[in-house]
Amino acid sequence: MSTKVQRTRKALLLAAEDLFSSKGFENTSVAAICRKAGLSNGVFYRHFKNKDDIFRTITNEMMESFQQSMKTTGGRNRRDTLKYLYVSAFETLWKSKKRFKAFHEAEYRLRNIEDLVDAIYLDAVSKILKKDISEIKPAMKWFIIGPLRFSAIYWIVFKNMKVPAEVINDLLDFTCNGFGVSAELSDEVTHFSIDKKASYGKDSRSLIMKSAEKLFGKKGYFKTSVYEIMSRAGYGQGTFYLYFKNKQALLEELVVLANRKLRHMMRDASVNLESRLEKEIRNYRVFLEFMKEHREIYEIVRESEFIVDNLGYRYYEKLLESYVKALNDSMNSGELRVMNAHSIAIFLMGIGHFMGLDLVFRPRYSDDKWEEYLMDLAKLIARGLEV
């Protein structure tokens, strides 16, 4: 490949990275990439077949770079090796933050990417634990990988910041020691079914939102029209504008409503439980049940991150606020040892996020073992790896 060809290809890739990371895949056109690169559309098609092709190229290059950084594990003991893993992952993702932001969307759009990322992390964990990948239980994977991956998303993607050194120390402490409480848990904590009142009402607004939830989840936001939403709900298109300014306003309300419902359900389901550990495990069960009932919501929340500025961040920030308050209350009462509640909340959300991915959204594990998984997870959150 000649130097000029290389320069042209690099210019297109850099322009695409910038646009994909700031505007998202759907809102980026080939023409916009070419304008930003200062090149003609014709030049673009000498290097890439279409927008999907350049998006996949960026994704594959990011994947190769990340995979390479995760191959080496250093440290004299398990604790040191864990910290090496955290620092290496966060540094690599931060150095390529624009690609990571585009890659974050690719994990949602390109279904095989999540499997590849999962395999890279599992390989690193197997080396640290000195176990074959097949021997790593689901709960162990979520406990170690979930907080790491979600911390990277929260700080680098949402906050546009390098993961703070104190957060890495908090993560190491939590992974090694957990809450520092007894791991005893009654079986009834993991047995719970959500109230079907979590469903929508029968009024016109609710029926429109229910229709949109199904269609956005199945077809995606951009491929769903207002006409389709209203037809499915049983109304004429004009009725839509009596309730919503536009399709984006409907999307925002769906995300806000789902967040509120989930928070209220978790609060109500755990109100009669005594320990923080019991409440966390019950809340995970509620989360799984809620998302199983409203599976489309996960797809909607993920896609919304790339449509409305800060909507995904606001969704998680509301959940984060509830977590932080509950954790601080437990620390102030002396039930939990003193920790950074904000960091711990992010870690707990990360566990739940990737557990939901594995059990509900793109199932990897049997759905008749939820209680077993949650009991295993309780032991890890209570005591950590104890190293």
Q: Can you describe what's shown?
A:
By secondary structure, the chain is mostly helical. Among the domains are: 1-48, Arc Repressor Mutant, subunit A (Orthogonal Bundle); 187-336, Orthogonal Bundle (Tetracycline Repressor, domain 2). Helix content is 72%, strand content 0%. The protein contains 18 helices and no strands. The protein has helices at residues 3-23, 30-37, 41-47, 51-70, 78-95, 97-109, 111-129, 138-158, 165-177, 204-219, 226-233, 237-243, 247-270, 276-293, 295-304, 311-332, 341-361, 370-383. α4 (51-70) packs antiparallel against α5 (78-95), α10 packs across α11 (226-233) and α14 (276-293) runs parallel beside α17 (341-361). It starts with a helix and ends with a helix. The mean pLDDT is 90.
Describe the secondary-structure layout.
Blueprint: H1 3-23, H2 30-37, H3 41-47, H4 51-70, H5 78-95, H6 97-109, H7 111-129, H8 138-158, H9 165-177, H10 204-219, H11 226-233, H12 237-243, H13 247-270, H14 276-293, H15 295-304, H16 311-332, H17 341-361, H18 370-383
